[in-house]
Amino acid sequence: MVRVTSIGFPNGRIETTKANNEMITLKDVAKRAGVSPSTVSYVLSGKKKVKEETRSKIYEAVKTLNYSPNKVARSLKTNSTNTIGVMVNNLSDMFFIDILKAIESTAYEYKYNVILCDAVNSEEREISNLRSLLGQRIDGLIFAGTGKNKKLNLDRLGIPVVTLDRSAGSGSGSIYVDNVKGGELATEHLIQAGKLPIALITYSTLISTFFDRMYGYRKTLEKYGLPYNEDLVVVTDFGTYNEGYNAVRELLKRKVEFQSLFAVNDMLALGAMRALVEEHYKIPEDISVVGYDDIPIAKLFLPALTTVSQPQYQIGRKATELLIRTINKEPIEEAEKSIVITPELIVRETA
Amino acid sequence: MVRVTSIGFPNGRIETTKANNEMITLKDVAKRAGVSPSTVSYVLSGKKKVKEETRSKIYEAVKTLNYSPNKVARSLKTNSTNTIGVMVNNLSDMFFIDILKAIESTAYEYKYNVILCDAVNSEEREISNLRSLLGQRIDGLIFAGTGKNKKLNLDRLGIPVVTLDRSAGSGSGSIYVDNVKGGELATEHLIQAGKLPIALITYSTLISTFFDRMYGYRKTLEKYGLPYNEDLVVVTDFGTYNEGYNAVRELLKRKVEFQSLFAVNDMLALGAMRALVEEHYKIPEDISVVGYDDIPIAKLFLPALTTVSQPQYQIGRKATELLIRTINKEPIEEAEKSIVITPELIVRETA
DNA sequence: TTGAAAGCGATACCAC
DNA sequence: GTGGTATCGCTTTCAA
């Protein structure tokens, strides 16, 4: 069924016509075309057959009046807004940019709008944003929030929710990247290059994402019969560039030797690299570095960062499609509801 | 006047209560509290005095029913959605990230929602997105679109518009960064360091932003009695990293000598730096580089990029405040409607 | 194939 | 202070 969501304006004009800035309504169109409001609605929604003659009369009126349907009124009646909400943990985290781009783009194709909320690492703000989104009557939610909100039960929001890469309640679907695998990939690469021992810069182990990456590191060391040395790991509070920088300084202070370094996200890796360069280490000759995420600048960096890639665009697109299909009550097989994406090691210049 | 936009849920719960997933309405609350719907409305909006006793009865009912007002209905009635639209030219352009963050954050403070649209460099998409936003009845728009859409008259959208850094119609306000000044700053810095001649990598001179930066470059050369040499300038199509890279290759092919390079945006500068490094030029010893924008990674880069800063967070915040004040019909002096922000040269490691 | 009219869930005017 | 009710602009059932 074709649903006309947006009525074309003549000549690409996007303007109001009524002088007093009042909106043209469906009634105005009906009057002008000499038909009833319902008929206009039928024509515009394409939900009922209407005689060709009346149709064109109506289109005519729509054009000359430059009519644009009021989606608020439609929403009230149909109880659906054609809008999805997106909650990200932190917009500064470049990891979300391509995801957001993909969501916006996919939503656009399906004629959905996107309302954006940033939790800025705050659980309160997360809740408060969520409340607002729900009040706006969004049709569904893509959730990539703080991941540490215990009060939050995404299954009881009353709308479909797709979660990204966090396990804060299952929701009606989730896109999950195998972080253990990613940790293994990175570690294995460094082991095979003989760059031992491997230092680890990680981030809150309370968040499963990072716990898993770290677990992949440990598991792989074990697999190769290598010791796990706590002196080689630094745990940071937020996973930022500055913390990556400080982590290396800390490592250096500890006077432990290491030939390579695995950071559980790219920002940490970049910060670490700065510290290494300042101390005149050559990358990768002296110390190899592997990051995680493949944020947009990873490949642009000097030297280009070797990293574990999470296909961000794909994640965003799949999440949006899954969400919209759920909103539309399309039958979705159980297997499709939980999409697991396999990370990939992108070898560039730092390892 | 205090406007209660969001009703607190007890214990931080965000859940539906009616088993059949039906929404609780104001009428339900009224019935439960034994009052009329209008009284409930008065209490929740705080627009009329209501006896303390009835008030608490109503709050009581709101709590136990876990009522959340339907903003769609409110919007229909009040003809305002508490939502602002944001149109950016391209989300991949990291220049917009902090702006977006600021917009989101400021909107949050004022209890506004943000609907995000990405024109992805396409004028068609820009128009079509705009149409959709207007259909959604947004209260106002922050516009930082392609800047080349001739069909677009932002003054006739029927809602307040604040434009960012483009001159596509004045709108009801604009935040303008003095790009000529920025071009001067960069050029002057290089001249005074004696890094002559200065190559220029620029981007569509049809967009005033970039035309102005280039003009600042020419003007400054003139001021110092230096020749303007066309062989030293490369004009790119989109201002991307890859184009910056290719621009340097082009410059090298032309066999013109240059000791420094001014790129009209940071992405071009970063791409240029890559090409220089690949050709074994040392930055800044052999060739100095100055960018423009101060995108988030500029200071993180290796070497850290010297660049002309546009205070992105401030731009976003001011734009949002100006917009919301306009929406609320607050009196705004003519001078405040056009905010000019002075760029600043941030000297780091590349020049 | 078309039209009349009820109603979505708020707000706000006007009575009392 | 409180309540009845028309209204916002659309969709949709039912009847013609």
Automatic annotation (TrEMBL), chains A, B:
A molecular function GO annotation: DNA binding
CDD domains found in the cross-reference section: HTH_LacI, PBP1_LacI_sugar_binding-like
Domain HTH lacI-type span(s) in chain numbering: 24-78
SUPFAM superfamilies: lambda repressor-like DNA-binding domains (SSF47413), Periplasmic binding protein-like I (SSF53822)
UniProt-listed InterPro entries: Cro/C1-type_HTH, HTH_LacI, Lambda_DNA-bd_dom_sf, Peripla_BP/Lac1_sug-bd_dom, Peripla_BP_I
HTH cro/C1-type domain: residues covered: 24-68
Pfam assignment, any one: LacI
Keywords from the UniProt entry: DNA-binding, Transcription, Transcription regulation
Protein name per the record: LacI family DNA-binding transcriptional regulator
Native organism: Christensenella tenuis
